[in-house]
Design goal:
The chain is mainly alpha-helical. It is built from two helices and two strands. Strands 1-2 form a two-stranded antiparallel sheet. It is globular and about 45 Å long.
């Protein structure tokens, strides 16, 4: 787990310098995991909003092996339920990426 010393609550609160250092740390940890434990892959994730149970920004670097049972989890509804929402969301997100807010 990577925790910056300076307090940030969420991903969008990070300044570019801290975000860069977090990614550099994830690269170093990944390199060490591959060298020491010969991992087959690495998953990197962070939980924001109500899913951040620490109340402080942090990033997980998770060592992975084929058949390790790791899962991000599946939606509780069938894929057909989400398809129209995904199409609508794509349009909204594309517009949101260009906002200067």
């Amino acid at each position: 787990m990577i925790l910056p010393k300076k307090h940030f609550t969420d991903l969008v609160d990070l300044d570019i310098g801290t975000a860069t250092e977090i990614m550099k740390a994830s690269q170093k940890i990944t390199t060490a995991l591959k060298k020491v434990f010969r991992v087959e892959g690495v998953s990197v994730c962070q939980n924001g909003g109500i899913f951040n149970d620490l109340g402080h920004y942090h990033m997980h670097v998770i060592p992975r092996f084929k058949g390790d049972g790791f899962s991000w989890g599946e939606p509780s509804f069938e894929q057909n339920y989400f398809l129209p929402l995904m199409v609508q969301s794509e349009h909204l997100l594309r517009g949101g990426l260009h906002d200067d807010k």
